[in-house]
Design goal:
The longest helix is centred in the C-terminal third of the chain and has 6 residues, at about 145-150. The chain has helices at about 125-130, 145-150, and strands at about 5-10, 30-35, 50-55, 65-70, 75-80, 90-100, 105-110, 115-125. By secondary structure, it is mainly beta. It has one domain (about 5-125): Elongation Factor Tu (Ef-tu), domain 3. The mean pLDDT is about 85. It is built from two helices and eight strands; from the N terminus they run ββββββββαα.
């Protein structure tokens, strides 16, 4: 399998410490996604959507672990039940609010991604297809406000 980057994500976060742990953690922060020129036409019509999924590569994730202590917890959980960057593929998923799309660049708000992160894909977010009604959150008991206030620490560095 060969997956290559199609661009770069630019964000104000230059260190893994003190970053928001989810896009809800900093909804006002602007980021940009710069696609390689050969993929620019793929952004056609994306501006008609208000959100998009960004699939990225956690290029600074130093290791893989099958059990981790997530940011909002004090006990270990299986890595696939968390949003830890230490899972086996190091592929990240973030939903951002689109602000603009021009040529090979899109801008958005709400970002939890390190500056310079390789972009693997962009998907339009569609409520009719992507919204989950009545989800179960298992062990996660934190409120949206708790998640928004939390910043990363050194546990995944």
């Amino acid at each position: 399998m060969n997956i290559r980057s199609i661009g770069t994500i630019h964000a104000p976060w230059t260190s893994l410490r003190n970053m928001p742990i989810r896009p809800k953690g900093d909804e006002g922060t602007e980021s940009s996604v710069e696609l390689l020129a050969e993929f620019a036409d793929g952004l056609t019509d994306l501006a008609g959507f208000n959100h998009s999924d960004l699939l990225s590569l956690f290029h600074k994730a130093p290791r893989t672990q099958m059990s981790v202590i997530p940011f909002m917890e004090t006990v270990k959980h299986g890595v696939f039940s968390t949003r830890s960057p230490l899972w086996s593929t190091h592929i990240g998923l973030s939903i951002i609010r689109l602000v603009s799309v021009k040529k090979n660049t899109s801008k958005g708000n709400g970002v939890d991604i390190l500056d310079g992160t390789p972009l693997l894909d962009v998907k339009s977010w569609r409520e009719r297809f992507d919204r989950v009604i009545d989800p179960r959150n298992c062990w996660m008991k934190s409120s949206a406000d708790d998640v928004a206030a939390k910043r990363s620490d050194s546990r995944f560095i």
